[in-house]
Amino acid sequence: MKTLSLEGRMTLVVACSAIVGALVFAGVSIWPFPQLLVWIRTVPDKAGKLPPAPPLETFDVGTAMVICLIVLLPLSAWVAHALVEPLRRLMRALESAVASYRDGDFSMSIGTTRRDELGDLIRMHNALGQTLRDQRQHIAQRELLLDTVVQNTPVALVLTDRAGKVTYANIAARHLFNEGRTLAGLDFDEVLGDMPESLREAAKSGEDALFSVEMEGSEETFHLSQRGFRLQGKPHRLQLYRRMTRELSRQEVHTWKRVIRVISHELNNSLAPISSLSHSGAELARRGDLERLPGVFASIGDRAKHLHSFISGYASFAKLPAPQSRPIDWQSFLDALALHASFRLAAPLPEQRGWFDPTQVEQVLINLIKNAHEAGGDPDEVTLAVHHVGRDMLIEVADRGPGMSETVLAQALLPFYSTKRSGTGLGLALAREISEAHGGRIALSNRDGGGLRVTLVLPVVSG
Predict the structure, then answer these.
(1) In whole angstroms, what separates CA 257 from the centre of its chain?
(2) Distant-in-sequence, close-in-space partners of 94: CB < 8 Å, separation ≥ 6
(3) pLDDT of amino acid 99
(4) Mean pLDDT of 52-66
(5) Phi (first) and psi of residue 247, to 5 degrees
(6) Could you tell me the pTM of the whole model?
(7) 11-32: average pLDDT
(8) Which of 365, 2, 436, 15 is nearest to 221 (CA)?
(9) Is the Cα dihedral 233, 234, 237, 238 positive or negative?
(10) Terminal CA-to-CA distance of the chain, rounded, Å?
């Protein structure tokens, strides 16, 4: 509760100053200063009595004003110092507190016993400091929890700035890229220089991708997710490398079980009618009713034909022959491919010839282009491009459909996986099988602006 406000104190000081000034002027000009001067100038009589004071008009008013100034100026300076010094101390304390806040130290508070507006300001300042301390402690605890989670996650996390320098990397990233040593401050492009080519290409693409690399004598499959954002007003890029080998193996086992169930169900749906029709045919033959036997045999043939068609699709995948690679002229190969699939060539063809089995690769590209058209984008945006990069040939089929979600992207290369209700899931799995049989690989990535890009990587072997 304020006992006296700053305005009230100032009013009291001004009033006291006016009263003191009037008293000093009266003392100098009226009484007792004029009488004291007269007494000093005259010699007291023998009785020791002072002579009578001269009249007021005989006293020099100018002299009185000078004497008032001499008396009041030091007094005014002392009063001003007494009034301003507490404010000056308070201002210095506030400057120190603000400097501490600027440096991130919120532990400073200011003591006061004032009951005026400045006291209220100091108490509000202390309350603000306590609030900032509580928030800082809460944020520090959250950051500690977040850092603990991020550091111990199996996903390798790398954060880079505009110059490509690593600003943050968790434990999994340090083990993946730098043998457990810190990555902070390193040029991430230089770090990637020692990594497998497929990982470098996926990282430089700037898009989400699924790729496989040879690590420690075994093949590891990774899902890469990349996002750009602004941190403290500066552009950064976040890359997440997730190992998918174990998940793909688990999904592959689950897929094989599902395939076995599908085949078993289809066999039962065909064999049960065949068995029933065979029994009916035998019964008709025993009765001598030969006119109905051709219909029974025709039904048995239809069911057997349907079963053969169903099994042959899976058998062709299991009995894929070894590729018969030979030198391939790109223009002739793509002219033949254009008779079976519609696409737009997105880049000039390389001079270096390809080296692969044209029949198998053509079948892969037909399936990929068909999937691109079925994705639902603009048919004119279904493109094919061939690039010669180092020791590899990259055949890219791209569309402008909706792309793939992270879940679908992670499972797309599983055998028999399909997002279509009536699909067998042989398309991408067959493409993966054929590319690996050629010593290459296949990679999937979502495109900026929508769409999917499927890259078939085939090694260049001189023929």
Answers:
(1) 37
(2) 110, 125
(3) 85
(4) 56
(5) -65, -40
(6) 0.45
(7) 70
(8) 436
(9) negative
(10) 97
